[in-house]
Backbone:
């Protein structure tokens, strides 16, 4: 569930095909997201789940974002 | 102090005019002059080692008892040592660029240092507010040096609407008209770089100042659009070479863009300190064409405030 939602956010922000995004996909090296894209994605995820992601800079892969949300969502 | 102005209240300054941090250019002399004139001067740490930054801070302290800021370039190899210096020296405010100050935000707060990140987009502004930023500087691509993609006109009201902390507009502002326009967009302060670059108290090389004074509105260009580090500077032999190398690297299967960043780092010093404005990088904003005369920081601030007051008091119509 969380993965599907996050995948949708990423696909929309980066204009990539959702099917091309897997848990192990790296934001920077594989999806070519720059820091601004990442901030936007983190903001959208925070708003979608009403959470605050601490140390957003440490998130490198889609799976890490999913794990963070699963551990912290209300 | 400008009545009811949040920037003046937070920073304890007379006018909500912040002098932009300019690496190799804005040192303790310029920062102190701007602060003495009622604005907020800024020492740029750039890539300088911590003892050099401390030296600039001591110079400023010997010239003013007013608050001033240090601009910390977060990609500096000395960033954590520079943060230590700023905290030890009890600087009033820190402006940050080129990254996220998240690793240091808690320490600034604890030390009572106001955190003022410079941002190029709404998402980053929101992030910085969550991090505890006291003020946000919203910088449009009209600015000189490292820039984002949006204009001050479009970016300012969108950031003002997105955050609850006060916003300072930057990029393309050099006089009271620009300041009034920024306030109409919802900003409560302005950051000005290029005009202070030619201040009498600025120690940048006279050739650099002459280049800015001579520049027309069309004379700046952006290099590095494809490297991920776009920079606005005055067109010269250096930008031509840079563009050629950039194009050449882009034709390769594995472009080496680091080559360009290295070229740029040394070139700013070459222009600002050594005065080689042909082979060095003369970073300056689009508003260079409006900057016509070398004046003292106090004259610059007074002129800006006089025009601003003329335009905003009594209202129009």
Residues:
């Amino acid at each position: 569930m969380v993965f599907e939602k996050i995948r949708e956010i990423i696909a929309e922000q980066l204009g990539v095909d959702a099917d091309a995004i897997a848990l192990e996909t790296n934001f920077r090296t594989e999806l070519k997201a720059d820091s601004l894209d990442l901030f936007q994605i983190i903001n959208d995820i925070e708003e979608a789940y009403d959470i605050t992601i601490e140390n957003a800079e440490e998130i490198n892969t889609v799976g890490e974002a999913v794990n963070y949300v699963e551990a912290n969502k209300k | 102090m400008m009545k009811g102005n949040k920037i003046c209240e937070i920073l304890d300054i007379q006018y909500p005019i912040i002098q932009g941090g300019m690496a190799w250019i804005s040192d303790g002399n310029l920062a102190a002059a701007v602060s003495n004139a009622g604005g907020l001067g800024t020492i740029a740490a750039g890539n300088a080692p911590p003892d050099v930054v401390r030296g600039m801070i001591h110079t400023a302290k010997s010239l003013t008892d007013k608050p001033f800021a240090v601009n910390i370039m977060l990609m500096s190899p000395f960033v954590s040592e520079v943060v230590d210096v700023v905290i030890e020296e009890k600087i009033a405010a820190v402006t940050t660029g080129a990254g996220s100050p998240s690793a240091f935000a808690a320490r600034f707060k604890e030390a009572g240092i106001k955190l003022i990140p410079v941002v190029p987009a709404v998402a980053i502004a929101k992030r910085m507010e969550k991090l505890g930023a006291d003020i946000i500087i919203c910088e449009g691509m009209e600015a000189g040096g490292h820039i984002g993609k949006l204009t001050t006109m479009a970016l300012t009201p969108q950031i003002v609407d997105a955050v609850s902390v006060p916003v300072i507009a930057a990029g393309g502002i050099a006089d009271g008209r620009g300041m009034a326009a920024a306030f109409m967009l919802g900003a409560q302060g302005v950051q000005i770089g290029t005009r202070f670059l030619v201040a009498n108290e600025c120690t940048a090389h006279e050739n650099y100042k002459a280049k800015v004074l001579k520049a027309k509105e069309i004379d700046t260009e952006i290099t590095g659009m494809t490297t991920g580090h776009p920079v606005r500077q005055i067109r010269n032999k250096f930008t031509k070479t840079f563009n050629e190398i950039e194009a050449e690297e882009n034709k390769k299967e594995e472009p080496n863009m680091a080559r360009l960043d290295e070229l740029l780092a040394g070139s700013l010093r070459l222009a600002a300190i050594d005065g080689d404005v042909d082979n060095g990088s003369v970073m300056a904003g689009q508003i260079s064409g409006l900057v016509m005369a070398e004046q003292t920081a106090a004259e610059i601030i007074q002129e800006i405030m006089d025009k601003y007051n003329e335009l905003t008091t009594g209202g129009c119509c």
